[in-house]
Amino acid sequence: MKKLNRDLVIGIIMVLLVSIPVVLSIFWLPYNVNEMDYGAIFHAPSLRHIFGTDNFGRDIFCRVIEGARSTFLIALFTVAVGAVIGGLVGALTGYYGGVVDEVLMRLNDGLASFPSILLALVVVSVLDKGTMNICISLGIVFIPSFARIMRSEFLEESNRDYVANAKLMGASDLRIIFVHILPNTMPVFWSSVLVGLNNAVLAEAGLSYLGLGVQPPDPSLGRMLAEAQVYIYGAPWYMFFTSLTMVTAILGISLISGNVGVSAINFRQIKKKAQARRKEELAARDNTGEWPEDTRLSLRDVHVGFIDEDGVNEVIKGISFDLKKGEILGIVGESGSGKSLTALSVLGIASDTSLITGGDILLDGRSLADMSEQDMTKIRGGKIAMIFQEPMTSLNPVKTIGWQIDEILELHASHLSEKEQKTRVLDAMADTGLEDPDRLYGMYPHELSGGMRQRVMIAMALVARAETIFADEPTTALDADIVDVILGIFKKINRKYGTSIILISHDLEVIASICGRALVLKDGRIVEELEINKSDDENVSAQAFVHPQSEYGRNLLAAAFADRSYLEDKPDGEPIVELKDFSVMYRNRGKFLFSKKSFNTVINDVDMTICRGDCVGIVGPSGCGKTTLVKAIAGLQQYTKGQMKLNCARPGMVFQDPMSSLNPSMTVGRILEEPLRLSGNTDPAAAKELVARTLRDVELDEELVTRKVSQLSGGQRQRVSIALNIILNHELIILDEPVSALDVTIREQVLELLMRLKKERNLTFIIISHDRRLVSRICNKVYNINNGRIEV
Amino acid sequence: MNFYIRKIVSFLLTIFCVAMLSFLMFQVLPGDAAIAKLGTEATPEAIEALRAEYGYDRPVGERFVTWLKGAVHGDFGMSMRYEGISVTELIGSRLPVTLSLAGMSIVLIALVSLPVGLLTAARPGGTADRVSEAAAITFMAIPSFVTGLLVTLIFGIWLKAFTPGGYVPLSENAGRFFSFMIFPAISVAIPKIAMTVLYMKARVKEQHACDYIRTARAKGNNLHGVMWKHVLGNSMMPVITFIGLIVAEVLAGSIMIEQVFNLPGMGRLLVNSIANRDFNVVQAIVLYIAASVLLVNLIVDIIYKVIDPRV
User: Fold this and answer.
1) What pLDDT digit, counting tens, does each position of A265-298 carry?
2) Is residue B197 a part of any domain in this protein?
């Protein structure tokens, strides 16, 4: 059994302590709660009255239990009202948006600025006091918070591709809301129910304490506390047991709500043990070898693992390599192979749950793995600088560019005067090709383009003249022409200062253009060391790599430089899609309610003809509107202008990220059956058979029908996505970057599958891709989109 | 449109809506104040006469306009319960108590929770982190009036630091006023401190997981550098918003705590007026509280604009 979080267990015990007597009290209580006994006024706790008696000689234990029962019932009722009505309002407004949404949300904002108890007080004062009225008033008070939570959930979910997919299948709005989206919002819903229960218990107690809730002589926890306050000198037990019961219940609920799904791992203990074991192993080894003069960094049988429920899960399983002085070393591998983790582990800044479980990392002969945090801060940035992959999130959003670059000098070159520092910063910026560094110095990251931010990251790595630079996918997010500039910078500093560089990339072309050799990582091991021929040839090809030894290395190269063409000669078919002066726009959200409608045109007067059997490529830089255009063809855009003639049934669509385009709460079988149910195919046996056949057709195991999407690999997911489109016999399928999220070796397989299906079923494809090489291999017609227009 | 003008216009609009709602809400009541005042045995004529005196016989729209006009000038009509005392006078005498209670609580919340939240979140999983987390969850589970009772018990009865139930007006003796107010303020503050600490810690830890914190560490910052130069600035934004929201909670807490400590503030006036169905007073207090909460949020928005370059 999975180990339960300790706080969760305590919470459950606390809730049970209160709720078991409460449940039992429905059937039996030792005393009548309202029966007065003038012979037993203010008896201290004893065996007869375990919590003592009150000012009327009533048994406090019975009253506390009875009071807790009414408090709980009121809380449950309130939360039920709030959750059902609020949840429904939130779901509908979040899904539909529009004016109703805006009005309701403004109203909600107004209510949120109102103390909730005040709102309840106002409602109670309108309705008058009493148990039923408190239920109603608290219920009303709870509606807005549930509405807000569910609205934001629905808003987020309805932008996911699986909702677009459901729309494409022809699912009705109600079906999308309740069958597709609702199950995915349940975790958030239940946790807010728990939080709501907590607040409701507190609120009821408060109102009753003020004398506006449950009326005497009936007990309620708040009511009893108000009474107990009066007798706090004479009968402190009254106060004590009543508040104890209440606090136990509330604390129990909040412990449960805060700890559901939180793991019970003791990181420190595991880390300490692993560290000790690693040191023992190292000591047993012979480490007397001399440090070679020409080596900068040496990894010796490094193992890195993540701590999880089962202990330490090793991800890097023994990596050894030397980085020479002045060398540019490439590290290639698919996502999850451990490339980035290796770099982060060298610097000691991998996530808190990771640790080095074996081997050693040596920089100029000193072990980084055993170095104190204090000393490591001198290495980071000073000796080894790192360039991260995501320049948008890797820069501090509230500090200026200049400040952020200068910070490294503050930390590692504080002997420089302020003026010298600024000159160094501006020089580093100019080195990376940033124009007008003086102006950029005072700007913030959000004011820069992606390419500029990446250059800022590089300037940071250059400014302190670190001897070693790790660059983690430094060019992935950039356009082709900027990639060359940045690789040029690396070559320049390598030559000028003799800087050693480790370049991590999945792009073999990038690696081949500047690295002398490259390590191929797979599943945390080095499977191949590729030698690279230096050549001045502009077009890099597989020939640049001197014969790969391993099968994986050969596959990787073959996939990366695949040139198999799928083009074939065939006569033009009849037109299946015709666009004439076609524009697509988005509606701008008004700043004010009812402000004038204004539109933002994303696609401008496009003419396009796609014929049956075509494979049309749509290419263009990110943000050019290519996805918007195809979504409009699929009928997923609300605002279009001009002519569109569709000569087939509704087209199907394969999205870039199958994780988002397949419903995470459904099994594969259920996902594939959904379009059959929607099209009126109600025979379950036939549907099952069709699903199985389709899975075989996309080369997947039939057993997968019971799995959820999260349990599939990336390639399998994309195959399910394709299966979803062919199960309905779509003639026209739109593919939005269908293979770019997949690993290189899997990419070719999926591509082959797609092209086989196209041929067998005479399908028409519209493919969006940023990969021009890929497009030239498969598309018989290509449209270049730039700034919302077709470029010739 | 200009950011500030937009914010102020929407502030005024919201106030107007609150005023309208709080006015209309009391128009749907079955029994009006005239009956409440004269009792059910009063003759219909007497009730009619009183209704005319209060202006209840005129149409709702007209009465709302009159009321709103008065409200703008600070005139909310006469109390129905206290003969001859205007609502403004009634509230005016209570307002300083509630405002200073709320003000002191907010200062306490900011002074305690910001450093505690920041320092204890610096090392996630450490002792300080876990202890403060447990303490905060426990204190949040205690209703504010129970906290008030506990404070009374400990400081009032055992330590004799103040006289429970006592109060000295500000005008009489400022020093003694504050020595009486500090304990209620602590009682109001404790659960909100717990909330703010938890919230603050969550935000700080969230920032810790951000990519730019990794960058900051890769530059060679030590823990202090990361916290003060990078985490603080970024986690302050949501925390400021949160403090803005806390103001509403603090005012709500004051309503309860005034009851516990027997303070003559707006909260007690409100509860009494509700019990006495003195709706002129209730309407006015609702408007006062809503306006102060909205005003604080307006200020928060403006601070936000000033310190966050992205807005």
Assistant:
1) 677 788 888 888 888 888 887 666 778 888 999 9
2) yes
**Residue A718 pLDDT exceeds 70:** yes
Separation between Cα atoms, residue B174 and residue B103, nearest integer Å: 15
Mean pLDDT of B6-25: 82
Phi and psi torsions of A470, nearest 5°: -100, 125
> What is residue B80's DSSP assignment?
S
Query: How far is the C-alpha of A559 from the C-alpha of A448, rounded, in Å?
Result: 35
- Indicate yes or no: CB of A110 within 8 angstroms of CB of B14: yes
Task: Work out the angle between the directed axes of helices A116-127 and B232-261 (0-180°, nearest 10).
Answer: 40
The CA-CA-CA angle for residues A302, A308, A313, to 5°, reads 30
Query: What is the C-alpha to C-alpha distance for residues B68 and B11, in angstroms, rounded to an integer?
Result: 16
B207 within a domain of the structure (yes/no): yes
pLDDT, tens digit, for every residue of B142-201?
Answer: 888 888 888 888 888 788 887 777 777 777 888 888 888 899 999 999 999 998 998 888
- Count of domains for chain B: 1
Q: Which residue of A110, A125, A344 is in closest CB contact with B18?
A: A110
3-state SS record for A53-118: ECCCCCEHHHHHHHHHHHHHHHHHHHHHHHHHHHHHHHHHHHHHCHHHHHHHHHHHHHHHCCCHHH
Evaluate whether residue B294 is within a structural domain: no
CATH code at B137? 1.10.3720.10
Partner residue facing A380 (CB), from B219, B274, B275: B219
A53 pairs with which residues across the strands?
Answer: A59
The whole-number pLDDT of residue B36 equals: 60
In a 10 Å sphere around its CB, with 0-12 CB exposed, 13-18 middle and 19+ buried, how is residue A633 labelled? buried
Average pLDDT over residues A554-571: 79
Three-class SS of residue B31?
coil
Res A1: pLDDT: 41
Per the model's pLDDT, the better-predicted residue between A648 and A594 turns out to be: A648
How far apart are alpha carbons A288 and A299 in whole angstroms? Answer: 16
| A-chain residues near B17 (CB < 8 A) | 107, 110
Under 8 Å CB-to-CB from B242, ≥6 apart: which residues? B196, B199, B200
Q: Is residue B253 part of a domain?
A: yes
Tell which residue, A194, A250, A257, A184, has the closest CA to residue A222: A250
Say whether pLDDT at A555 is over 90: no
The CA distance from B84 to the nearest CA of chain A, in Å, is 23
pLDDT band at A730 (very low <50, low <70, confident <90, very high): confident
- Residue B248 to residue A388, Cβ atoms within 8 A: no
Q: Burial letters for A177-190: b for 16+ Cβ neighbours within 10 Å, e otherwise?
A: bebbbbebbeeebe
Buried b / exposed e across A380-396, counting CB within 10 Å, b at 16+?
Answer: bbbbbbbbbbbbebbbb
Helix (H, G, I), strand (E, B) or coil at A617: strand
* A626 bridge partner residues: none
User: Domain span at residue B237?
Assistant: 95-264
A84 at B interface, C-beta within 8 A = no
- Cα–Cα distance for residue pair A739/A654, rounded to 1 Å: 10
Peptide bond preceding A738 in cis form (omega within 30 of 0): no
Kindly tell me the sign of the dihedral angle through the C-alpha atoms of A252, A258, A261, A265. Answer: negative
- Using a CB-CB cut-off of 8 Å, the residues of chain B touching A268 are 125
What pLDDT score does A50 carry?
A: 82
pLDDT tops 90 at residue A471: yes
Distance, in Å, from the CA atom of A650 to the CA atom of A653, rounded to the nearest integer, reads 10
Which one, of A519, A546, A556, lies nearest residue A329 by Cα? A519
Q: What is the DSSP string of A364-398?
A: TTEESTT--HHHHHHHBTTTEEEE-S-HHHHS-TT
Distance CA A122, CA A137 (A): 9
B252 vs A contacts (CB less than 8 Å): 115-118
Nearest CB among B146, B212, B274 relative to A394 is that of B212
What is the model's pTM? Answer: 0.79
Mean pLDDT over each residue of chain B, to the nearest integer: 82
